[in-house]
Each structure stands twice: as structure tokens, then as C-alpha cells.
């Protein structure tokens, strides 16, 4: 599902509404959404009954995924929130049918920590990875703590060539939009195509030494460079970091090395991950991690200029 409506619509309105129909406010107390403590497990209290046709997958070993504590619900979302992507997650993890007119999603993969869904438009290079927990987006402080799951690593492992839900496109990109540039308010990492020109540009910048090789250098002026988007959209400036792997939580690296030192707002950030490829189009074993926001001259708070959904 692309967050993009049209090229002129940045930033976009957020679509958040609250509903009291699902109950179970204890979902975010550290137990995961699959821990069996939801209102959906007790239809007698007015919650929707689970759909028996949904292939609900329990967490392995009976353990729950790490979720924000109840005290962060005002910042990270409540289980009663009426967000379409959150309804999709609840269907995949609990079998709760989304309210009309929303239709049931295809649950492509489900684990204790995340689910994978089709994006829109639906094709073989447009997927979403979403937490099983209620997490609104990049602004949720929980995502950059040591307790949070490493959703970026999981997105790469699923979307890479040979992964569980491989992105079928010559060049692959992962991305997340800022709070104000997204359409829906359940954290979702896009697993999509990326322009070949973006791959070439990043390799050119690497050869010129115009990117950080350590997280502590990520926000330095010498690590900032313009990258072109679609024809006619102009260049956008990104802070660029090269990493050998995605074992570290990118939200944590961003928060500690870019946001805090520069007194920025985490909610305004966008992140795009581009795996480096060889001339033969094979993964070269490292990643370019791009970050931007509108505090940069010609910066942007959306990943939609670089990712290819349609």
C-alpha cells in the first residue's frame, strides 16, 4: 500500500479516529497482541467474534511479542483505535473481521512480532511489514528502545531475493514515512522497488566519500547529498549512512545520532534502506540508509520519492 496519493500532496492529512468497539486496553502492557488477553477472546463483553476462517498463527513457544507499555498508549496508539492497517493486523493475529466497508486482507506471513500484507496497488513489488503490536508509527518512543523488535531486519529478510515474500524488482528498497506524510497510522515498513538511478547515484556518492560509514557521522554535512526522484520531482537531500548489516535497530541509530544531537523531532523523519548491488544485480553485502526531513534544505519527510510501488 503506497502512502502516496499524488505528487503534490506532501504532507498528507493523517486519518486517525477512535472507536470503543474493541475494548481490551490491556493489550499494550508488555504482553503481545497474541497473548490471549484481548477482548476478542471474550465475545461476551461485546467485542467482535474472531473469524474462524482466518489462519491465526500463535507466537512460537507461547511467548508474546514485545509491545509498548500501557503508559505509552497516548503516543503509540491504543488497541481501540480505528485505523485500517491496525484492523488488518488484528484480523491476521486474532481473526477479528475488519469493520465494513473494509475487506479482509491477505495475511501473507504472520509471526509473533509482525505480519506481512500486500500494499496498494497490489503487485509483486509492493508489500508492507507491520508490527503485531499497536504502534502508530515512527513517532512512538518505544520503537527506538532496546525492547523493540528489529522490524528493518525482518523486512529485509522477507523482501530480499529468496525471502519469504520477495520483492520482484531489479532494485529493492525499504522505507517508512514520517507521521505527517503517511496515510495510515499503524507502523508499516514498505518493501518495494526502487529506481535503478537511485542505486547508481548512491554508489557514485560512496565512491566520492560522500556518506557516513559510522552512525556517529550520519548527521554531518559531509554525509548529506541530493538524490533524484521521479522525472520532474527534483532532487531531495538525504543524510546517507552505509552499514554492513541491519543487525542494529535503525530507529535507535536515527534517534541517538541524528534526532537528539540536532534537536529534531522523530515524528518528522523518513528512512529509506537500499541494499547495495553488484554490477550483476546481486546483493553486495551492505546497505545504504537514507534519512531526511524538512529541516534540511531541499529535504523531505516522505520515502515516496524513491520507492516504486506501481
Describe this structure in words.
With 310 residues, this protein is an alpha+beta fold. It has 2 domains: 25-193, HIT-like (HIT family, subunit A, 2-Layer Sandwich); 194-308, no CATH class. Helix content is 15%, strand content 19%. It is built from 5 helices and 10 strands, in the order H-H-E-E-E-H-E-E-H-E-E-H-E-E-E. It has helices at residues 73-76, 84-94, 151-159, 196-207, 250-259, and strands spanning 109-110, 114-118, 126-131, 172-176, 189-194, 224-228, 235-243, 270-277, 283-292, 307-308. Strands 1, 2, 3, 4, 5, 6, 7, 8, 9 and 10 form a 10-stranded antiparallel beta sheet that branches. The longest helix has 12 residues, at 196-207. The model is unreliable at 4-64 (pLDDT under 50).
Question: What are the salient characteristics of this protein?
Answer:
HIT family, subunit A; 2 domains; globular; 10-stranded antiparallel sheet; alpha+beta; 5 helices; 10 strands; 19% strand; single chain; 310 residues
